[in-house]
Amino acid sequence: MAGGLHPAKRELRERVLAQRRELAAAEAARLSRRIASRLVNLSVYREARCVLGYASCRNEVDTWEIMTRCQADGKSLGLPRVEEGEGKLSLHRVGQPSRDLIPGYRGILEPPLGVPELPPEAVDVVLVPGVAFDRLGNRLGQGGGYYDRLLAGLRSPKVAGRRGAPVVAVGLAYEFQVFSRVPTSTADHGVDLVVTEAGVWPRASTGEREDLRP
After folding, report:
1. Beta strand pairing call for 102-103 and 132-134
2. What are the chain's domains?
3. Sheet containing 132-134: which strands, arranged edge to edge?
4. How many CA atoms lie within 13 A of 109 on its CB side?
5. pTM of whole model > 0.85?
6. Half-sphere exposure of 176 (CA within 13 A, CB side)
């Protein structure tokens, strides 16, 4: 299994990214609005004081409306910056994402140097990008391991103890990015919920789905 894991990940990653690239802009915008609406109606979002988001790009689920909503709802908003030499993401408070971000790693918008850091224990909900997810919350990313390391840190006993509660990791995806299973290794860290335009997949051994359709 181990010998076939990387090819399996690569094949699935290429297939889903190709499908995502082919998604028409108008359709991506429509689906993203549905996903944002589902997210902000979740109790984990409503109860969160601080949300760690990310700047979507390359036809990912659009996070800009979500970030605007976070601020309108009076929540603190953080975004990560890639510390490429250290192989990790640093966390920073952001005031106006549309104004305060600059192109960084792979052209992705991120906070510039000098923006105040966000303590990891302050994060209640972390929004997690991904190429593919499964019904148990397993995640296939871009292959850099940045979010696996971030999630490991946010979930560490030390950080969780300072926070007083577990962080909730929420994957944002189009429905075609969700599979019955995705290939994973021991270094991979999954999410607690996956929000798509059609509903929410909880991370549970039963794979039982919470459908939020009206």
Report:
1. unpaired
2. 2-202 (3.40.50.10420)
3. 139-140, 132-134, 178-179
4. 17
5. yes
6. 16
